[in-house]
Amino acid sequence: MTVGDAARRDALSALTERITRCRRCPRLVRHREAVARAVPARYRGQTYWARPLPGLGDAAARVLVMGLAPAAHGGNRTGRMFTGDRSGDWLFRALHAAGFANRPQSVHPGDGLELHAAYITAAARCAPPGNKPTPVEMERCQPYLLEELRLLADVRVVVALGKIGWDAYLRARRASERAVPRPLPRFTHGATAVMPDGVTLIGCFHPSQQNTFTGKLTWPMLRAVFVRARRLAARERPGSVSG
Hints:
Order of helices and strands: HHEEHHEHEHEEHH
Strand order of the largest sheet: 1-3-2-4-6-5
Shape: globular
CATH class: Alpha Beta
Number of domains: 1
Largest sheet: 6 strands, mixed
Mean pLDDT: 94
Strand content: 5-15%
CATH superfamily: Uracil-DNA glycosylase-like domain
Number of strands: 6
Helix content: 25-40%
Number of helices: 8
CATH architecture: 3-Layer(aba) Sandwich
CATH topology: Uracil-DNA Glycosylase, subunit E
Structural class: alpha/beta
Radius of gyration: 17 Å
């Protein structure tokens, strides 16, 4: 690891500390803590994380995965994004299949999971009621995403899980004065948009049960997105290309 990489890792660790102490959104604080007090029978005896979740992964990541927010009984319980729910089961299996993870399951922090060349983040860091953060809550959380984007300077591909992740990434680019295509690219599964600086944005249906149970998102569809992301990330950053 180079000196630059070590400094970036330390900066991400410092960001993690700030994120996990955040109490900017009273509604989200109340909800995440109320969920931890009303533990369902299947998780009885477990202590919930019940705090904001930081991103996780490789400080030298070339692929960034953009989610929406932690699940009330998933990440809000385990303390790791996409961990402890069905969405995460699909996501980590796909990351492993594409060579980004050393194991196909994420169970809890400290389980030995490692991400290579990939980093997972989200538009909102606390579990929101009804899985719907408000626009104000998203805005309050955005500085954390902006800091991650600044530090993850090697990212070449962004996989947006759902339209909210897609829109959140484009908003973050504009907020950080990074150019976006005009007109703004529209989300759909498999959509590709190449940013003026060469970063490729790929749309993917969110691996929620609503999508996987109905067949809107299948395993081959999800795996193909990350195999494609792996291939694109291996390339040198191109010049301005139309998506």
